[in-house]
């Protein structure tokens, strides 16, 4: 069969007509292959086996009608032409409706022209086939696009340019997003999607869409909509305008996705982040306070130990100094025990020892441990027993004593005048739920409702300004509450600001069957501990001291001179930079640099970084009034080799200097005589054995005389509300006062500096600064009188 041969099936029962058709195609120019059959059955059998390009079927056949070979036009695989001997319009309509491509009256002329007719019909059929294929391809693409749209996790839309954005098209996913049926948006009513947007979000959406259209860019939005059920949902919308050939916007296309789950997760994450930051801030404040609480008794212990070992003292002076050392050691031990207790409680590792014990013994112990502090403040400390009380209770006496000492100690600390009362009572009713109750009430400053909410939380101080004023770690109440719960009870508190507080401790007293309900009175004992002396060695070398406070310069220079160190000074970071590089370039580099980290012009951090950038490789030890781990790392990151926190202990300074200078060569000579100390001056580097009496007096006088200048600077700053100058002056005074042993002055200066740096109210900062002025004046007057 030729490549272009036309395959034609002729269904004709009349031999004459069949012959005419055969002759006509035989004479035609077109190449064709005819297959002749005479019935519907034969035609069906042939069509089941072969493919044809054209079917010519007589309308009336022996076993049926030619129209039986027709199929719906869209399903037909080849064109069919119905032939009839009569020009019957009814038959023609029947044939065309049945799917015939044409209708032919069998005249001799028509049959002779049948090849030409067939060519024309085949061309028509080719057009039909191409259109059918195009329609099928279009339907396929539409189905693929519809599937793609339905798989997008959101509603695809086309809508008006302007609010309220009526929809031209919307995918089925809008039902899940809004809860409304699809025809709500695309039906005759064309419900406006913009009416679902929450009213407070509409201006934002309209503005962003308008900017996207005008800027010819996509827009991304997140806003809230109100669903059909009344619920609120967060949606994300990405869309863009469609423009005509002239660049005019026609409509908006885009997608709307429900992101409520993600937004909720983000909100929960944000809340968790805030909580974590708050917890981290609370821990930082706790650690800063803890650092102060630990370093304060350590300073006293080291300072008085140094004094005991360095100078001959009268017996009563030695006893006073030993008592001070013991008192501070006990305070330090209390802090350490608090930290260990809290860690044990939170790790469920704290064991209780439940034994029979006397209530009166416990209360007398507590009273004996706190009475001295109450007496020094002029406070009455009363105990009231509400009888009858059991002779003994079964509990852990050390832990109950710990709770009560903390509560009574707090009452003394926060009460300026009045009294503290300890009240004891116990349920007399029979039953297993009887509780022993001990109440500690005071007439102190009271606690605000806001502070009460976090009073028993560790690492959370109710008021950091109170902590700075009164001291304390902030762990005592947290530990006490946990201990009370472990003892079968709890701590409850009632308080009114400026009227006082009442803390009520309840514990399980254990079985009371057979216990005698009476009272008794005990006594207590104390023990004394010994200390070991320290020894310091002389060293040699040259040190540059970069320090903006002349008082601190003089004190450290004098102390280092006593141990054999030559000292040169600089008053700011820029001057220190120039001197250090000049000495290095002259071949006489400094053996060590002591760098204060907060100075005018360049501070210690900038000076150190610039020195390292300039190639200086010498040893730099940072001096700073801040003592947190982060501060140390900050100094190390700037290029420092070591770190000392102010106020500096003489032993720490000597040890640090000796680490970087020449090796120790000989023990220090015999101790110097002890100076007479001015009132208010309790320790510090000046009390070191490295100073003679005359040197100490001279240095101390220089510091006190310099207070006049500091007072003028504070007054000038207050006059013009210059917080920066106030910070700088307070910082310098804090470092100097600590070194010279004026701890109260140093602490108050630190309070002013910290409050100002933390952005406290100007009135509060200035009030503290005026207190500082008053203390400076008082210190000068006291020194002059002595």
Record the SSE blueprint.
Blueprint: E1 6-11, H1 15-27, E2 32-37, H2 40-49, E3 54-58, E4 60-61, E5 64-65, E6 80-84, H3 89-98, E7 102-105, H4 108-112, H5 114-151, E8 155-159, E9 167-170, H6 174-178, H7 183-186, H8 199-214, E10 219-226, E11 232-243, E12 249-258, H9 260-310, H10 315-346, E13 355-357, H11 359-376, E14 380-385, E15 393-395, H12 397-413, E16 419-426, E17 436-442, H13 449-453, H14 464-470, H15 476-486, E18 490-496, E19 500-507, E20 541-546, H16 550-562, E21 565-570, H17 573-585, E22 592-596, H18 604-613, E23 620-624, H19 629-638, E24 642-645, H20 650-660, H21 693-719, H22 723-739, H23 743-757, H24 762-785
Parallel strand pairs: 1-2, 1-3, 3-6, 6-7, 14-16, 20-21, 20-22, 22-23, 23-24
Antiparallel strand pairs: 4-5, 8-9, 8-12, 10-11, 11-12, 13-15, 16-17, 17-19, 18-19
Helix pairs in contact: 9-10, 10-15, 11-12, 12-15, 16-21, 17-18, 21-22, 21-24, 22-23, 23-24
Walkthrough of the structure:
The protein is of the alpha/beta class and 786 residues long. It is 49% helix and 17% strand. The strands form 6 sheets. The protein has a 5-stranded parallel sheet, sandwiched between helices. A 5-stranded antiparallel sheet has the order 9-8-12-11-10, with helices on both faces. Helix 9 (260-310) runs antiparallel to helix 10. The longest helix is centred in the middle third of the chain and has 51 residues, at 260-310. The protein is elongated and about 155 Å long. It starts with 5 loop residues before the first strand and ends with a helix.
